[in-house]
Amino acid sequence: MKRWAVLATLTLAGCALYGVISDPSAFFAGIVDTLVVWLYKVYPAIFTFFMLASLLINTRVIDRIIYYLNPVLKNLRFPNEESLHIFILSIFTGNPASAVIIGEAVNKNKISINDGNELLKYASFLNPLFIISFWMPHNIKYALILVFVHIAGNFLIAIFENRGNPKTKALKKPITFSLNELFNSLNKIIGILLMIASVMTAANIIYYSLNNILSLLNQSSTATQIILANIEISVGLNNVASLNLPKNATLLIFAFLTGFAGLSIHMQVYNVTNEYNLRYAVFFKYRLLQGAVSTLLLAPFIALS
Question: Which residue from 56, 109, 193, 231 has the least number of CB within 10 angstroms?
Answer without folding.
Answer: 109
